[in-house]
Specification:
- This protein has helices at about 30-35, 55-60, 65-70, 85-90, 130-145, 145-165, 170-185, 210-215, 230-235, 240-265, 300, 325-335, 365-370, 410-415, 435-440, and strands at about 5-10, 40-45, 95-100, 115-120, 190-195, 275-280, 285, 290, 300-310, 315, 320, 345-350, 370-380, 380-390, 395-400, 405.
- The chain is an alpha/beta fold.
- The chain has one domain: Alkaline Phosphatase, subunit A.
- The strands form three sheets. Strands 1, 2, 3, 4, 5, 6, 9, 10 and 11 form a nine-stranded mixed β-sheet that branches. Strands 12-13-14-15-16 form a five-stranded antiparallel β-sheet. It has a two-stranded antiparallel ribbon with strand order 7-8.
- Helix 1 crosses helix 10 (about 240-265) and helix 7 packs parallel to helix 10.
Length: about 450
């Protein structure tokens, strides 16, 4: 095996592959991703195993498909007995830390096992007294009449709109914490996992900065949808939304540049392996969908992935890869394993019924949005299976290279039905941690 080395994983939430100049020559605002890619192995056909963070990251941490690890809409926690990725490093004596404002990567969800340190900017998550106060407040609220509840909700909405969302993504704090860790870590071997939320909605609360929104000619910032609920409640200017998203990608690129500069300044850049990726992409109006729920379209499950090893040799991987393979790839580049990882013959993924959004999907749109999916990719062929609440199935086959639909055959149906008939499992588990709930509301999940 190679000499062991430290690893920095930079996961950019909701980052579309086609919005980086590495993958799309028309893009002119991601120079830092371009610079990193020129010293990295660039995976040109990497795909997430799910279109949102919890199941996607759980696949990275376990090496399993969503229907195997079970962390989906039906069971919003990772209860796997499998050794998690961070535990592999911890057992080898590495200092392990995760930095993320994303509540899907937190102790209460079970995704941070193996990390010595967890910085998720949840100030009261472990405070039992605060939890008791929140629980008592909730019980008092439940005892109120509907009229009084309504008045409290309207007041809370005003407060929430003006204050609570102002720094929900905490991109600046995430990067500052990352830079601080890199400056202080010294000679210890470490595994650092950073989740940067800058490309995730909302786009109208100071992240990305106003000057970048203006640079990308975004108009009427306050009219941008902040959540899926906003998307369902009004007409969305998708052109404006796309511009705002591109501003957020440019901001992500600037944040990446700061981290790379710190690695250079500390001398770590030539010693550590760097993995940069998206956990999923983002729909920006394609097929009348916003964000990354309700769909497994290419722009949501096709992700950027680049791996820079010390020395910075550039290469390209054109074969199919799925993010669950990082469970083996990352230990391999760290020198913890000598297992060769080949491209995948097929990529599979899934999306359970969107339980978090059941209450906001309009009745007239349930047939389109209240469904679950499985997908299978072989070469340039993508097979999609859609199942509605009544159990009615619909299949589609697409040529990925041409972007055209193909006729569905029984062979296609048999392939997608193999091993993916039940994405989620049977038991549904709710989110219980109160502060986690509040962060999820900020990000539009509840």
């Amino acid at each position: 095996m190679d000499e062991q080395k430290s690893v920095v994983v930079l996961l950019f939430d909701s980052l579309r592959r086609d919005k980086l100049s590495t993958y799309n020559d028309k893009i002119q605002f991601t120079p830092n991703f371009r610079s990193l890619s020129e010293e990295s192995t660039v995976y040109r056909n990497a795909t997430a195993n799910a279109p949102w963070t919890l199941p996607s990251v759980s696949s990275i941490f376990t090496g399993q498909y969503p229907w195997d690890h079970g962390a989906t809409h039906r069971n919003v926690s990772l209860d796997s007995d499998r050794k998690l990725l961070a535990e592999k490093f911890s057992e080898e004596g590495y200092k392990t830390k995760v930095i993320t404002p994303n509540t899907w990567i937190s102790p209460s969800v079970g995704t941070t096992r193996g990390f010595d340190e967890v910085e998720n900017f949840l100030g009261i998550g472990g405070n039992s007294i605060s939890q008791k106060i929140l629980s008592k407040a909730r019980s008092i609220y439940e005892s109120l009449s509907r009229g009084n509840k309504g008045r409290i909700i309207r007041l809370a909405d005003i407060i929430f709109e003006n204050f609570a969302k102002a720094d929900v993504k905490k991109s600046r704090k995430t990067v500052e914490e990352t830079k601080s860790f890199l400056q202080d870590v010294g000679d210890e071997e470490f595994f650092l996992f950073v989740n940067v939320m800058s490309a995730h909605e909302p786009y109208d609360k100071g992240d990305p900065p106003r000057e970048l929104l203006e640079k990308h000619d975004v108009s009427n910032v306050n009219e941008l949808p902040s959540t899926e609920k906003d998307f369902f409640n009004g007409n969305v200017n998708y052109n404006n939304l796309r511009k705002a998203y591109e501003a957020s990608v440019e901001y992500s690129d600037k944040l990446l540049g700061e981290i790379l500069d710190t690695l250079e300044q500390t001398g770590l850049k030539q010693e550590v392996a760097i993995v940069a990726l998206g956990d999923h992409g983002q729909a920006l109006g394609e097929d009348d969908v916003f964000a990354h729920q309700f769909t497994v379209m290419d722009s949501v499950v096709d992700v950027p992935l680049m791996v820079r090893e010390p020395g910075g040799n550039a290469s390209t991987e054109d074969g199919l890869y799925q993010l669950k393979q990082l469970y083996e790839i990352i230990p391999r580049i760290a020198g913890l394993s000598d297992v060769d990882i080949d491209s995948a013959e097929e990529v599979r993924g899934g999306y359970e019924y969107p339980e978090f959004f059941a209450g906001i999907i309009p009745d007239e749109k349930r047939d389109k949005y209240d469904v679950k999916y499985q997908y299978l990719i072989e070469g340039n062929q993508k097979i999609i299976k859609q199942v509605d609440r009544s159990g009615e199935e619909e299949y589609r086959v697409k040529n990925r290279a041409e972007g055209k639909e193909k006729n569905v055959t029984e062979e296609h149906k048999n392939k997608i039905d193999n091993d993916t008939s039940n994405v989620g499992g049977n038991d549904q588990k709710a989110v219980e941690d109160e502060e986690v709930k509040e962060r999820l509301k900020d990000l539009g999940y509840m």
